[in-house]
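Ticket reopened. Same input as before:
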Amino acid sequence: MNWAVAQRILGLLLMIFSLTMLPPIIFSLIFNDQSWLPFVESFGFTLMAGLVLWYPMRKRRKELRLRDGFLVVASFWTVLGTAGAMPLFMADVPSMSFTDALFESMSGLTTTGATVLTGLDSLPKSILYYRQQLQWLGGMGIIVLAVAVLPMLGVGGMQLYRAETPGPVKDTKLTPRITETAKALWYVYFWFTFFCMMGYMIAGMGWFDALCHAFSTVAIGGFSTHDLSVGYFDSAAIDIVAIVFMMLAGVNFSLHFFAWRNVTIKHYLQDPEFRAYFFILLVLSSIVIVSLFVLGTYGDAYDSLLNGLFQSVSIATTTGFTTANYAAWPGALPVLLIFASFIGGCGGSTAGGIKVVRWLLIAKQGAREIVRLVHPNAEIPVKLGNNAVNFRVVDAVWGFFSVYIVVFGIMLLAMMATGLDQVTAFSAVAATLNNLGPGLGDVAAGFSTVSDIGKWISIIGMLLGRLEIFTLLVLITPTFWRH
Amino acid sequence: MKILILGAGQVGSSAAFHLSREEANEVTVVDRSADVLRELQDRLDIRTVVGHASYPDVLERAGADDMDIIVALTDSDETNMVACQVAYTVYHTPTKIARIRSADYMNARKLFTQDAIPVDVRISPEQLVCEYIEQLILYPGALQVLDFAEGRVRLVGARADQRGSLVGQKIATLKEHIPNTEGRIAAIYRDGKSLQPDGDTVIRDGDEVFFIAARQDVRVFMSEVRKLEDPVRRVVIAGGGNIGVRLALALEQTNQVKIIERNPKRAREISEQLNKAIVLVGDAADEELLLEENIDNVDVFCSLTNAEEANILSAMLAKQLGAHKVMALINRPSYAEMVESGSIDIAISPQQVTIGSLLAHVRRGDVVKVHSLRRGAAEAIEAVAHGTAEESKVVGRKIEELDLPRGTNIVTLVRGEQVVMAHHDTVIETDDHAILFMTDRRKIDKIENLFQVGVSFV
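Engineering reply: fixed in the latest deploy. New output:
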């Protein structure tokens, strides 16, 4: 293990993160909400912490190894959650316990969007902005950002990138240099955010709300500046902008990159994952819309269409915005939607869940077994599009899937042990592990009623979900630490 | 510079390694084996594409349409040539470099033109390695002999021993020793670390000295650093592969050459190609065979098989049995480092020999020649100073006025046919070829900037 280098990079990352405390100060001054002090303090603390870690090791220039990559990413996200919680904890309004602040910060950074706060509308603007910004940074990944701005990471940058980016196939680079790849991703991300904000403003939002919601939309986060989430605006135009950008943000960002560079949309149509993703959204929302209409939840077809579509996209991409109280919808609809969040978005997107490409591979393997029953001697590769998928990737998908289920089961039991009923516990675990946000039952609106232990379990769940379990899990295995 | 490397074999991987560690380059590597590429991508900051190197579809995926250089290094000459053709016709790649092994293709000069097979630069690692060994045999005692300015000037690396007349004395006394020759000490390595040589530096026994001299003065200069050895007469080559046979062919007229090949069929083949050299069938690590062939009288023993471990062992054995000087072909830098300080006189790294010819083409500014030294840590380059005093940062200036990074020397200037040894007050003129020695390769971009002409000169 290369402690010195890991420590140096951790220090650097913290120093970069400390800079993100500065914009809220500006917002605090603009809106004159008297909340700038906690941000200044947190900025100072985080910068100092980073400096203390970095300074003694600043001259260590060894290459980052695979293991160090895991160590840096996992420990950084843990430290990040704490550093991000600092302003929330120190602010007078809202007054939050440490657990609550950590929950909120982790929920932001992991783009979960579950909240323990109520009365958002009356909170200081700088705090509101800060929550949204956490989501935005966590969406594309602050480590990816660091790889983009710190050229000296070299191959080590690739190790970090792989440990943070979601999806089963992480070896494909957009450009030869990893820093350029990271930059390209952030460019695309940045422009998406910009267009999303413009879209919201044209649809009638004020600039502050538009900026904040753009942050949490492209990050597939789900934080809002209002208790009623997007439902607060009660505007079909805003709903549609949100639907479009949630859908786009759930697509693999390398597809966006190729579309942007080659000025063509043919990559989307050729990508099997994108097609599956689109198909799933289409089927899901059709079922929801038709059910809502037939069961008469909403009086007219228009409301059924809009709410059904919005909620389906929001939950299936694991965003977690709400325009309606979907938890109260009839029949199997609430559970169906929660199930959809297990699928989530595409690999390499900002969405959570198991990812479409993994489900696609699992489904194709199932289909392969059926063909094998009929043709026992057939050689049948698992293919995505026209390319056979390496058997190691397929194996890894199965490994991921089973670990996901096991982790889910354990967390479900733990949540129920804290006293939650089964529906609440089930949906709370799904909402955190899939980085979704709102659940059902007692956690439909937020996690404020969950006990402290329950919140800690959720915090772990969110982190596991964001780092796709293995990055975190590998650290607690003896294999990792054996020399 | 956007570089596309085709083929991730030994030469391809080492090219990817050397090129990608320079900040300015973006390297993409194409190979048929996904496993090889995965392993490579874990080590290097490059992009990889799986596929057949000459297929337009594969080149398209690798981004051939905006590449600056394509380097075809697969083991098939035909694939390399077709890849260059595709790159030229379909993607208009400006610079196309191909590895051509077969001498038949190499000699057909008319073949490589824009309207036939558009390969701008052909490199044959086998030929380069062979020429490299030839030079070492020509200058016994040298560790490295590198040509500059079409052979007018040579850079020679040699280990100092106490019988050299300059050893134990200050470099400044060189002028008194050999008044009529022009030569300069370019760099001195003592215990693996470089010294910045000046007139007061004293050369010690065991130092690795790099000096530069006009071709005719190399031998005289060599005698200053170490005792002159007798010309090489008897050469034994172990391994009748491509390189071994080429070397035998090159040497058989002037030296007594024996070549050992294990495979009887192959031995038969090469014996038909060679005229004077004796082909022996047997194992190069067979003590009996070596003794029978009077290994203790052999001047140079070169083991040049494909298996580097076998090369090391047979060279060590030959040395032990009394061969005067042994050389071994070693690919892995770590092996080379291990054996060169002890049991083997010269470790020849085909990668290091080959990479220079690639580097010359990725450098900005007019760089004619690049030689990679000391396993890639140091570099000797020949750059041309273009433009007038106003446009260029070097022309019309004295050498001491130039803003050279630490560890970099301008050793020599070649002005037309004339070789001008560089002194602190030598003024650089337009179209001078400057030969620089850099002990720290990482400063290369400073040198590139220095020799680049301002935008006005286009």
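The beta strands of chain A are 383-384, 387-388. DSSP finds 22 helices and two strands in chain A. Please confirm and we'll close it.
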